[in-house]
Design the sequence.
């Protein structure tokens, strides 16, 4: 009986192995990429962190207990330290998380600077789904001075927030100099940086496909002219360009319009690398038999490029898109950090990083560095996901 059982088990294992091989050789391109991607633990962790940050950015108004602009500042708690909810202290245990009450005062001991005193006997309890400042999940306001154009629309109005306290305010990451909540500002900054990256990547993606596709398919003089344009755009230095544009942007432009303008410029100068890759692929694929068959059937150039050539390396295009995101985010952050990109009252990671360069912050207000952690986490998550997708899209990678 044992021999029969062993033979049955061996037969089942062989059948499973055969099914696994059949599933591999009959799987589609994206199924193969996903199967390889799942085996990369760092890429999977990066994808989980990235999805979490994206959701935090999208639902930033709901997750933020207070308005991140100057209108939501806490005048009674300026440059305040982070307030961490607790369940117990020397006064006993509580089923609800609580924070202490702070009072501000000036004294000769601190050279008459404002200081906060903790009242550990007076608790303020954390509550869920509280009502607060009104917001819209979709809020677009592109108002160009003059009569050029004006785009305004708002959707999904609400005033419900995930958490708050029954009295006063709570600041998980502390407050800055004017008293604005750093937690709320950080969530909105993540959304802004992701939005800038998305708009920039979409614009560069469309331009790269059009210019790279035409250049690689037709070749000849058209290719030479388009490559001259591509090389010219690649040689444009970003910082001097934004210095000139920063002087050009009128002061009366709204923060939303400045945000849109920066996103478009990043997209207009970010397409050459992907366009080069598209061109190289099309130069090698345009002489294939399936392209010739489509041409003999009467298909025009646009149809051949769109329906046959570009889908042949869709996975690599997706990988390039993901890898392009951190560079867009880094570009916006760097430009805003040196004062050439977004500015107050826009909440972006670059704008918030401007505050950490002060010596006073380094010595006394270390919680200003919390947005730096989110910035590094966002960029690293994109890098890990991009590396995982790049390895998964390689047809010669190990598939055992």
Sequence:
């Amino acid at each position: 009986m044992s021999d029969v059982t062993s033979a049955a088990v061996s037969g089942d294992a062989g059948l499973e192995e055969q099914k696994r091989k059949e599933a591999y050789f009959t799987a589609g391109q994206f199924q193969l990429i996903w199967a390889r991607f799942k085996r990369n633990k760092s890429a999977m962790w990066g994808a989980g962190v990235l999805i979490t940050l994206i959701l935090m950015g999208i639902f930033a108004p709901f997750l933020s207990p207070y308005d991140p602009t100057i209108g939501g500042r806490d005048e009674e708690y300026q440059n305040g330290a982070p307030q961490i909810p607790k369940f117990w202290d020397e006064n006993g245990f509580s089923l609800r998380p609580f924070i202490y009450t702070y009072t501000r005062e000036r004294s000769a001991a601190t050279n008459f600077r404002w200081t906060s005193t903790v009242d550990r006997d007076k608790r303020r309890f954390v509550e869920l789904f509280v009502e607060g400042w009104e917001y819209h999940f979709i809020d677009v306001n592109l108002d160009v001075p003059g009569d050029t154009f004006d785009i305004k629309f708002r959707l999904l109005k609400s005033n419900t927030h995930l958490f708050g306290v029954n009295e006063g305010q709570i600041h998980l990451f502390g407050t800055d100099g004017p008293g604005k909540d750093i937690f709320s500002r950080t969530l909105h900054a993540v959304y802004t940086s992701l939005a800038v990256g998305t708009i920039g990547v979409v614009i560069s993606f469309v331009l790269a496909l059009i210019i790279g596709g035409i250049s690689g398919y037709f070749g000849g003089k058209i290719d030479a002219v388009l490559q001259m344009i591509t090389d010219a755009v690649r040689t444009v230095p970003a910082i001097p360009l934004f210095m000139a544009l920063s002087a050009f942007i009128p002061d009366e432009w709204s923060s939303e319009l400045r945000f849109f303008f920066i996103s478009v410029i990043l997209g207009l100068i970010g397409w050459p690398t992907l366009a080069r890759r598209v061109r190289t692929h099309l130069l090698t694929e345009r002489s294939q038999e399936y392209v010739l068959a489509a041409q003999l059937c009467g298909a025009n150039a646009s149809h051949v490029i769109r329906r046959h050539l570009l889908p042949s390396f869709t996975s690599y295009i997706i990988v390039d898109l993901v890898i392009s995101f951190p560079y867009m985010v880094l570009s916006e952050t760097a430009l805003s950090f040196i004062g050439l990109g977004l500015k107050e009252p826009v909440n972006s990671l670059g704008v918030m990083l401007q505050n950490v360069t002060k010596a006073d912050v380094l010595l006394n207000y270390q919680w200003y560095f919390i947005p730096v952690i989110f910035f590094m986490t966002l960029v690293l998550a994109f890098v890990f996901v991009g590396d995982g997708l790049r390895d998964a899209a390689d047809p010669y990678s190990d598939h055992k």
User: Anything to note?
Assistant: Strands lie at 86-89, 92-106, 114-143, 150-165. Residues 212 and 277 are 8 Å apart (CA to CA). The chain has two domains: 61-180, 186-392.
